[in-house]
């Protein structure tokens, strides 16, 4: 997996060329902050989506699955609200989601079946359709593109900053752009935990290829992050391809396109992990030397979910015992006598365990290495050649404060 | 599963009649607190043990498995230290554990193969054998039974209080007593997470029956609690049966004996959950209406492990959305349209969800119900007749403080 150059860590535009965005504050958030965004293309797009695997699925998730099943080759846009998840809202919730899509479609001259819907926020509360309708009406009056991160701001809940990423990729027919934005914060876990992400591209991509590329990208990005192990009712990752660049992605270009899509998704995923509720830094865990990637992922994921590991990192405590113990209960048949644990990477890496045994190390240096952002943890299982990377964050008392006080 | 009468919530004696206990502070804990306990019987005992399933196993766990495999019918006692886990200590650690057992055996005139060993504390540090040997020597000079909870105190690490439980059961041949003590605090999760528990009885029980009864008891007690989902390298649950009462447990009495053993283990398990690091209350989650007990357990366990649920309980926030979402990602095919969620039990229960939909409820009353100790959460899946109970604790900022500062 490629790493984004440092320049791409700066805020990127959230939308590919040719896509429009408009935002407003319609009052779904009591704070008066932005809570509604419409993203659309003048040309019909192909689309693909990946949704929460939670058995409890929010109304917009149910609706979008239906829309994409019917016509993933003819989509015009996505309407997104924050402040209300429209989850556990029964048949009325589904009707509200449908109506939300219809109103947004009408706003840009599209058919209802061409509009996708995303919601995030409080569960079990019906959408205030009066406010929402007025908000969608007001969207056209906003200056859509004045601030590139406005759509990314409008989807935030407990996020502390907007999350955007973009990449350009040169293909045979020309250069295409992939750009996206996301929201995360709590309930983050592999298999599409609480997060919304919308990626757009000006490439021409047929729906089947787009779906394949999106699944490959999610497997190396959103499915590799965790904040607290909770998984929400609303998780959605969507990609829209407008073809406005006139550059087509065929089978020959699919690998390059998928790699760029993975880069964008991985950047968004890391931004989500970095901005986990109460987090002070990004933690990158690489497990190497596994018999296969699934085992490497499972060990890395178990370490990344351990509250004891995450609190130790927060305290800059080089507590390798907790990391080794987590690897030990991951369910993978590791051989403790083979493992090697280091903090940091390359020449400055500090080794804590060698062949399963503690080695003397400079405690202050290890503590300082842990305190870096990102904090790098490397575990070699010594059993094979496979590896996997996961991203998480440290675990602070602030996480508890945020989540003990966030109202239902 | 039977519930212990209120009287048994009071501190019980940690040892069954006929067992001796001695404790000392040998300096393994820098604080100077008690850190060594010897429990022994003058008569040979049968014994059974259940150990961590972590792939990283501490030296005393390796040793005890060996001892029990060789002679579970001829055990004289257990030596326990806190302050050092003797885990990830290699061949030298195993030698140290063996020597620790030998010294303790010699102290009570037993053979080395008759002595079991338990350790808890910091991982990756060798036992200070000089201090330990002096401590074992000093044990005989302590007044063993002056304070019934001393052995329970000597095993504590971040526990805030000693944990003891006992029960008497009338069998055909007479009454037998079962008594136990445990330590818990962090790294608590089903499948024998970080905890040590030692149960003794004056009944005569053959090793195979004792092992069966212990496994049944663990399934309904220690395997039903969680604090943080972490699992340690040292978890051990052991039972010793001395037969000093002269009352034998045969096949006819095995159910009654196992039920009483389960009561003692469940009380200890609840005390461990209640005393989770930073916890302010016990949380009891009962999932009913499941298709089978395994599914009920899985749903209850997923809810009990959710940081979002546990922080909401800490904040007295009746956030049913997080409970439902956790049930939804448990991996069990629940039908959200069938679930019923209540806080509290019996006549004063407050219903939050009925047939999967929110129902109006008194928010203040629900908040007060959550604030009780224990906090009772009941979820009916509406799919069958099976049920399961798990115990956990609320999740406070204090948990983070404790674990960010506990030194390796």
Give a written overview of the molecule.
The structure is a homodimer. Chain A is an alpha+beta fold. The first copy, chain A, folds into two domains: about 5-275, L-amino peptidase D-ALA esterase/amidase; about 280-405, ArgJ beta chain, C-terminal domain (Ubiquitin-like (UB roll)), CATH 3.10.20. Helices cover about 30% and strands about 25% of the residues of chain A. Chain A is built from eleven helices and 16 strands. In chain A, the strands form three sheets. In chain A, strands 1, 2, 3, 4, 5, 6, 7 and 9 form an eight-stranded mixed sheet that branches. In chain A, strands 14-13-12-15-11-16 form a six-stranded mixed sheet. In chain A, a hairpin with a 2-residue loop joins strand 13 and strand 14 (about 355-360). In chain A, helix 2 packs parallel to helix 3. The longest helix of chain A is centred in the middle third of the chain and has 24 residues, at about 250-275. The model of chain A is unreliable at about 1-10 and about 190-195 (pLDDT under 50).
Outline:
The structure is a homodimer of 408-residue chains. Chain A has 408 residues and is α+β, with helices and mostly antiparallel strands.
């Amino acid at each position: 997996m490629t790493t984004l150059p440092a320049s791409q860590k700066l805020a990127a535009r959230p939308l590919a060329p040719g896509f429009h965005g408009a935002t407003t504050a319609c009052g779904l958030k009591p704070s008066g902050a932005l809570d509604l965004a419409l993203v659309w293309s003048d040309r019909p797009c192909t689309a693909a989506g990946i949704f929460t695997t939670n058995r409890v699925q929010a109304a917009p998730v149910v609706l979008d699955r239906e829309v994409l099943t019917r016509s993933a080759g003819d989509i015009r846009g996505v309407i997104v609200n924050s402040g209300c998840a429209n989850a556990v809202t029964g048949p009325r919730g589904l009707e509200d989601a449908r109506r939300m899509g219809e109103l947004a479609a009408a706003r840009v001259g599209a058919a209802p079946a061409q509009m996708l819907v995303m919601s995030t926020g409080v569960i079990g509360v019906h959408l205030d359709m009066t406010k929402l309708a007025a908000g969608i009406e007001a969207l056209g009056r906003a200056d859509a593109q004045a601030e590139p991160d406005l759509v990314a701001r409008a989807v935030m809940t407990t996020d502390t900053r907007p999350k955007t990423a973009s990449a350009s990729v040169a293909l045979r027919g020309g250069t295409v752009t992939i750009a996206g934005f996301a929201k995360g914060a709590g309930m983050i876990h592999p298999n599409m935990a609480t997060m919304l992400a919308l990626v757009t591209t000006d490439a021409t991509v047929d729906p089947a290829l787009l779906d394949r590329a999106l699944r490959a990208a999610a497997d190396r990005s959103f499915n590799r992050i965790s904040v607290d192990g909770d998984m929400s009712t609303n998780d959605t990752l969507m990609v829209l391809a407008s073809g406005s660049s006139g550059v087509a992605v065929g089978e020959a270009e699919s690998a390059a396109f998928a790699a760029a899509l993975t880069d964008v998704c991985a950047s968004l995923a890391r931004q989500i992990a970095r901005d986990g509720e109460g987090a002070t830094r990004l933690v990158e865990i690489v497990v190497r030397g596994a018999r296969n990637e699934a085992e490497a992922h499972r060990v890395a994921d178990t370490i990344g979910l351990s509250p004891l590991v995450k609190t130790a990192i927060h305290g800059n405590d080089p507590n390798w015992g907790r990391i080794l113990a987590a690897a030990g209960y991951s369910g993978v048949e590791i051989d403790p006598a083979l493992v090697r644990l280091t903090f940091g990477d390359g020449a400055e890496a500090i080794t804590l365990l060698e062949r399963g045994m503690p080695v003397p190390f400079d405690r202050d240096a290890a503590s300082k290495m842990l305190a870096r952002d990102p904090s790098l943890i490397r575990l070699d299982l010594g059993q094979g050649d496979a590896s996997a990377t996961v991203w998480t964050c440290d675990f602070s008392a602030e996480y508890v404060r945020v989540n003990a006080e966030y109202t239902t």
